[in-house]
Write a structure and sequence with these properties.
0% of the residues lie in helices and 77% in strands. With 137 residues, it is mainly β.
Length: 137
């Protein structure tokens, strides 16, 4: 088995991401995954899927930062005002692999799947970013 399962783009809602104490406002975006399924097993109690390769694409339409950062450097208090608008940013991954297991519950009369296990990985340094611009004062 080596079947391609094309994905549907999923919307990423506006949210705040914090990294190293800096708050980035993510205005909107989307995520798309295309899976190449190597193995699958289905029985009455669950589903197991092995993905030999997954192509992931994340698009961030715009991210912004407007924050004053204060740090003491060599005994001196330094204040920096970060103010920037960046985007669009595309992040891609083409070497991801995954194994997933779902348990099935039939008590309602129809199957309800619950993710029981997920192993996801990729090669080191395999994420790629497009060139993007940031503007600010």
């Amino acid at each position: 088995m080596n079947e391609q399962a094309p994905g549907t783009a999923q919307t990423i809602e506006a949210q705040t991401l914090t990294a190293e104490g800096i708050n980035w406002q993510l205005n909107s975006g989307s995520a798309l995954a295309t899976l190449f399924v190597d193995t699958s097993n289905v029985d009455a109690t669950g589903v197991q899927v092995g993905v030999g390769r997954a192509k992931l694409q994340i698009t961030l339409n715009q991210i912004t930062v407007d924050q004053v950062i204060e740090r003491v450097v060599g005994g001196v208090r330094v204040r920096v005002h970060l103010n920037a608008v960046c985007g669009p940013i595309q992040i891609q991954q083409e070497t991801a692999k995954a194994n997933a297991a779902f348990s099935l519950d039939w008590t309602s009369g129809s199957p309800v799947a619950t993710l029981a296990k997920l192993d996801l990985g990729w090669e080191p340094n395999s994420w790629t970013f497009n060139e993007f611009e940031c503007t600010g004062p």
